[in-house]
Amino acid sequence: MMTSGPVASSADLFRRLSWQSTVPLEVRLAEHEPGAGSGADRYYMYPPRHAYLPLLIPEIRENLVEIALDDQQLAETNEAEWWFEEDPGDAVGFAPQGACRWHWPLDLIHLHSIITHPAPGASSNGPGPSAPGPSKPTFQPLRLLLHLSNPPADKLMLPNTVESCKANYMNQLREADFVRWRNTSRVTNMRRPDLDAGWDGIVHDDYDMYMRMASRLIPLPHSVPAPTNPSTRPAITDPNGKQPESSYAVRALPIKVYLPDGAPVVQEVVPPLGADGQPTTVLSVLQQHLPLLFPSSSKIPYPMALPIAQGVELPPEAELAWLSSSVCGADGWLRIGIRLIAEN
Amino acid sequence: MSLSAPIPDVTSPGIGDGQAPGPSLAASMVIRPNAIAALEHYKQKDTSKVVVRFKSIGAAPIMKNNVFKVTAGNKYATVVTFLRGQLGSKEGDPLFTYVNAAFTPAPDDIVGNLYKCFGTEGHLIINYSNTQAWA
Questions:
Q1: Taking a C-beta distance cutoff of 8 angstroms, is the pair B94, B131 a contact?
Q2: Which among B42, B99, B104 has the least Cβ separation from residue A259?
């Protein structure tokens, strides 16, 4: 894929920023677990958004469990039975997400935590929730409780092994690619070392290693010729004369939208360009698929709720093809959470 | 493809379908009523039916009847559990499933979403095998 030029540089900048984005995490031993309530029963860390809980277990073991438990308790504990739950805490909100799934990237677990708690409404002095300008970052740490036994298998659905997590990740890569092209030939035809470098990059938090895979899979947001003028030269070509694949030319974009309070995931066919040839924007897709929360009759883009991705509020005019290329998760999916706005 | 016999229903015991209880907002945080009503609408489970067609890969046993109706709102994990039952596959026996022979959905992916995005000719193709097709 063409890796030079302004489009590639700009996408690379945002891909690096997303890669470097972390989730402030507090892990505390749950009540009734050995070591709970002691002075050493919690641990703070800043794992990357693209990490998975099974990958964090060794660090949490070393810095929390081995310190809070005595030798006898340690000998009796079985890592395979450990599981995390979001700490419901005292904050007002919708029903908490409960047990944290092993195959969810940390970004998604954090996203559910954010949307569980409605956003404070506009004060009389501050900008309204729909005001243009820099996104408001979320500073709330993600608070997880660590349980050491009795994992709820029906909720967790998978074991907490790294192998199981990797297998799910590889399938999410394929599913995203199938959404884009209606086949997975790009994954199937990739050289094995390049494909494995994707997961290994996540394990080692190594962006360049991860990009060995991602640069071959996730298309850059190159502009495509307008459909009304087919004789226009392509916007950019690579040295071989081939048009590089563009996120604006895929069949559909890999996007999932999450609502609070146990509502089912929203996943629709979202083409990069609308019927009018214009790029699909955040607001257009929300108005089309969640019209009760984003009515097109509204004078302001976000009257009742805010779309959040990678921990920040998305501007209504942002183009989904660009977002899906530049700020998607490490498995190629753009995950958007819908956070309701409180009146006060 | 026309089906002469009625398509059997996959009964869903609700495995992994545990939905969170209703909103527990304190009275001090006020959400506009139409936003709450909108969320309640979107929380509803889709009870419409999706036609699923199971196709064996390799040496996996072929099912006498391989077409079933599944509730759209069900999680993918319920479909796999159902398939295990149909094949007489025991817990621990390897069983791999794929949509369009391309990828394995996450266990909490919703069947209706899979059909919307990946369905062909009115049904969702799920391939199954006793051996892993790729690592």
A1: yes
A2: B42
